[in-house]
Amino acid sequence: MKRFWKKLGALGLAGVLSLSAFTPAGNAAHRPTSMSPNGMVTTPHYLATAAALKTLQEGGNAVDAAIAAASTLTVVYPHYTSIGGDNFWLIYNAKTKELRALNGSGRAGEKATIEFYKSKGYEKIPSRGYLAANTVPGVVSGWWEAYNYARKEMSGSKIPWSKLLEPAIEYAEKGYPVSPNQVYWTKYATDPTDNDLKNLQRFEEFRRIYLKPNGEPYQAGEILKQKDLAESLKIIAKKGADGFYKGEIAKKIVEDMQKNGGLLTLKDFEKHTATWAKPISVDYRGYKAYNVPPNSQGMASLSILNILNNFDVKSLGEGTPDYYHVIVEATKQAFADRDKWLTDPEFADIPVDYLLSKEHGQELAKRIDMKQAAQTVEPLDPKGDTVWLGVVDKDGNAVSMIQSHYFDWGSGIVAKGTGIMLQNRGSYFSLDPNHINHLEPGKRSFNTINPAMLFKGDKPYLLYGTQGGEGQPQTQAALVTRIVDFGFSVQDAIEAPRWLHGRNWGASSNNLKVESRIPQDVLDELIKRGHPVEKLEDAYTDQMGQSGAILIDPVTNVKFGGADPRGEGAAMGY
To answer: What is the pTM of this model?
Structure first.
């Protein structure tokens, strides 16, 4: 992909102190850390960041800004997220000093059963198509629940709901310049030689909306309009969540699905609700790391830190073979627990407190051999394309939020007449009735997405998260260790070389993928210890996901924001 710099000055956003411009995956340039005395936003797309920053400047709080950004992302980053997906939130209320978790993930439809798929001859749920879209989209319920909580309980929120969706509606109706990242993933998804995971042009609405009339992908900078999506957003702006789950949109989605053999019903939509939960946490070097509880894999992200507590990571040296080795080995142990236990807690008793206890962390740490990579602790194969965003407002309210429709382009199905890409999160359910994450009606699937916060004392110190399915817990560990143990700035921590243990979306094998900037002598030592290293061509690649972070100085209250050069994000403050 060619370099594509998108300047935001024309948007007339006053008071921007620093802007991290986009440099695509490949050999990216260093960006400055963005700093601000008041609010700070970081998202994986500059237009979403601009929408959120404008919301803060007009008097909205962190939740308002997060909704403005998240809704914009469903338009301008359609390959990574959509209204037809899920979200999870961590919301810090500065007035009450309370941190809350919100689960905006959807449940399997009432007709989604193992028996149904088996009767059709399936040994696993298809990854694409109508039968992959077997869970209710949870995104709008998450937005709506968070908005109403903020209105009742948080300070600084005066902006009407409908106004928060205005940027998204405008970009959908009038168009936005297609980004190089979208060009890349459109070409990737329309490979005609792969009729299972790619070749998405076989789906009529995908082809009509995301490809030009001649069947070619849009090029970077060309304007893409999504008229049906604009109309759906207008309904949601006017009627809130009921406009999606109990009105015209749900009817159109269900009608299209039933015409094409899909499973979701109007009852599935009408019954859906987002749910509040108590965040889960572990201590790390005098800080407290928080995440969201199951059905999210947030417990795996925390488990890695809980294991690393038993090692003097700083003395190992950042970027050394020992550094990479210990985090990869901790990841294997955390993933083994995750794969054994993780599912919808309404359908299973998950011993989260035990799994995140100091004692269990010590037990897992003892299994790690610093001279030899474990060969028998294998992860599962969750894939994913996702967006994480972070917002801190002038009053200290903070949001760490993540949103996804699972694979790039989700199920590949855009419900006719809605412009809404439906997720394929439910394709990760197992059809083995003995599997912990087996399919059942009304059940939430194992979900890879997880937003994070690190507290110092009783206040947020670091908001962080990333795209990347299996890579999310690993990248979170990289960010925390580099900032806490080695004193990196947020931008340096984001840009530092990354790795991915396991299988990412589209890969054919479980191995240890590494960016090319990691020195060869370090890789040689990792290979010597038994790691199946695959050195990628790019110095910076979005195979490692697109991450972001905001650090809040507890003394000066200055916010330091970072955005990932592996994508098209921007960290902006005022």
So the answer is: 0.92
